[in-house]
């Protein structure tokens, strides 16, 4: 039992003698992520104060993992705040939602103007918008920070995406950039993201992209397994090979390892896992936000729906007995097809990131945030789940041109997607013929073809809308005349006048 625990049992309030404010920052929430961030901070030379609602966890932590390190504990919010140097820097790593608000309320009576509350959970960005404003009115700086990289990342270097009240940044920059992961060029994977909930917004998009990357990988695995009839051990080696090329990334690497992992009977464990995907909601938030902002972030949307489709397994079992389709049969050069598959994955990934950055760009406009795009790509280069070599190229693209309209217009990515096209088209067409679902590969290609098409069939759609609902349409400038003036909302009585539509037009 720790000295503190003994003291408490003896009725001595270990928190009462006005504690010396020795800690550089404090962290509330001692689940594994929280503990690991504290240990990481201590390793970097900071003194950290730990607090948890169930205070026995504080004692256990101090007596074990934290022993001998520059870590102090507190057994009440009051004691915790008293142990922090000013301005107080407090990070919450508690469940998103009400627990964050509850802790903020509990902290407020013990804080002073200029103190900083950081929420490091997976909070929804509108909550962080609200908290930034509400706390600013009380003179407290709120920071909503994306934290990515799981338990391992928290311990040895996560990707950190802080946003909120910028007044806080000079006070937390050193701590954040010290504990964050470093890119292979030694740059910290952490920078100021932007105002209000921008940090949590960027983390949300990160998670959406994570969903997309994972779905693309799963589709590639399925295509190799069912389309090419490859055993899992062979597929693992393809991923191992891909991890040495343009797809080199954490998610490809762990896929290789997962596929190599055999159960005690010597067969791949992955084949025994129930094919029903879970989700906690951050991918769904990204998809909903893209609909709200009118941005075609189709790949993340498909990735979320693919998880939903996987989850309705009983329906799929029934449908598998009732709904027919082709049986995949591959003929030809397998190695060449695997090369095409690599290109298809690469091209689809480029589309997914281009869509993600389109959403970020639109959010900056819509919410009036100043966002630093080169830094966002840099923050994702190391420490986080989507870390990859590829993000170095994205960082370079936005460093070369911070106002780049679309990632696909950057010289490097423009060339890359052109080079990948033949293989990509081959894969998407083959899997359609084989009856293997590849929603992420397919939507990426459809988006690419739609985005590069000057005239889409939305002219017909507008006519339909006007026909049944008088929703009006606009005329193409080259066809404008007195009856159909340019830039005006026009309605036609489509049934009333036979071919003579011009007589029945009006300008709304
Ligand atoms: C990260 C992860 C992390 C978490 C996902 C899982 O960046 O470290 O994204 O935040 O693992 O939210 O999300 P799902 O449970 O929805 O797959």
From TrEMBL:
EC number from the UniProt entry: 1.1.1.44
Alphabetized SMART domains for the sequence: 6PGD
GO BP annotation list: D-gluconate metabolic process; pentose-phosphate shunt, oxidative branch
Molecular function terms from GO: NADP binding; phosphogluconate dehydrogenase (decarboxylating) activity
Chain positions recorded as substrate binding sites: 122, 148-150, 206-207, 211, 280, 307, 465, 471
InterPro entries linked: 6-PGluconate_DH-like_C_sf, 6PGD_dom2, 6PGDH_C, 6PGDH_Gnd/GntZ, 6PGDH_NADP-bd, 6PGdom_BS, NAD(P)-bd_dom_sf, Pgluconate_DH
Enzymatic reactions: 6-phospho-D-gluconate + NADP(+) = D-ribulose 5-phosphate + CO2 + NADPH
Family of this protein: Belongs to the 6-phosphogluconate dehydrogenase family.
NCBIfam families the UniProt entry points to: gnd, PRK09287.1
Subunit-structure text: Homodimer.
Protein name: 6-phosphogluconate dehydrogenase, decarboxylating
Species this chain originates from: Aspergillus sclerotialis
